[in-house]
Write a structure and sequence with these properties.
globular, alpha/beta, binds iron/sulfur cluster, 276 residues, nine-stranded mixed β-sheet, TIM Barrel, 9 helices
């Protein structure tokens, strides 16, 4: 982010905190006053909390080493969520110590970290805390917004010029699946809109974790949409789906190698900007 934008972040953090008094940060439109302790769909008040921080190497190659901070709380309810305890009960996570994380970020960057990776849960529902943190870190640090992209315009405005790379986790390719698997039947419209907006002012990587048995309903529509709307945007396909113990509507099996290879070939044949 530029020095000029960096100076502005404290003011944006104040705006984000103000937005919590009638919270409409995301399409759940809860309208609760989180600063008064009220909680909406994401079960968060105004205290930003985290449940993990780690220097991580298993991300897209241009991002690593990546210093990751996992904020608790989410606005989706994914059937295959790997960190559901932190989203169902975000209050059990630790309160963010901004000065500690600012110092830790500097420490990792002085030793070769390439990116600061903000994720969750979902970072958008914690944007006030994230902006507070970013106001305390060096302006030269590369910021990755690792998000489900399910948020309202206010979040996009607050991030404009601050985020260097949007790592957009595009989970499903149709609203039937998003309703069953994520608990959101307006998911696609919102997420596509936000990815297009993000691509106007920053780098974007669309990441799709391949879901076993969801090629026709999810993978193919995503690839077709990208080819039509954002053919230049980077695409990252992951084959690391883990079936949950209680699968519910989620796939109950692991992805087969042939499914992974077929998906890669499909993306390549469509001329998409596939990365590793
Ligand atoms: S951020 Fe949380 S409280 Fe605010 S609208 Fe979204 S789900 Fe509701």
């Amino acid at each position: 982010m530029s020095v000029a934008v960096h100076k502005d972040i404290s003011e944006r953090a104040r705006q984000a905190r103000k937005a919590l008094t009638d919270c409409n940060l995301c399409p759940r439109h809860c309208g609760v006053d989180r600063t008064a302790g009220e909680k909406g769909f994401c079960r968060l008040d105004d205290t930003a909390r985290y449940f993990r921080e780690v220097l991580y190497f298993n991300e897209e190659s241009e991002l690593i080493p990546s210093y990751q901070i996992f904020f608790s709380g989410c606005n989706l309810v994914c059937e295959y969520c790997a960190v559901s305890q932190w989203n169902n009960q975000p209050w059990i996570a630790k309160e963010v110590d901004y000065d500690f994380f600012a110092a830790k970020t500097s420490y990792h960057f002085s030793r070769g970290a390439k990116t600061l990776n903000l994720l969750g849960g979902e970072p958008a529902v914690n944007i006030h805390g994230i902006l507070e943190l970013l106001s305390r870190i060096d302006s030269g640090i590369k910021v990755v917004w690792n998000s489900n992209m399910y948020y309202n315009n206010i979040v996009d405005s607050l991030l404009d010029g601050i985020v260097d790379i949007y790592l957009a986790d595009l989970k499903c390719g149709c609203n039937d699946c998003s309703k069953k698997l994520l608990g959101a039947d307006d998911y696609l419209e919102v997420v596509k809109r936000n990815i297009l907006k993000a691509a106007e002012h920053a780098d974007v990587i669309v990441r799709h974790i391949l879901l076993p048995g969801h090629s026709q309903c999810c993978l193919e529509p995503i690839l077709k949409w990208m080819k039509t709307e954002i053919p230049q945007v980077k695409l990252s396909l992951w084959g690391n789906y883990f079936p949950p113990v209680e699968a519910g509507a989620a796939p109950k099996e692991y992805l087969m190698p042939r499914e992974y290879i077929k998906a890669q070939e499909m993306a390549k044949n469509m001329g998409l900007n596939l990365i590793k």
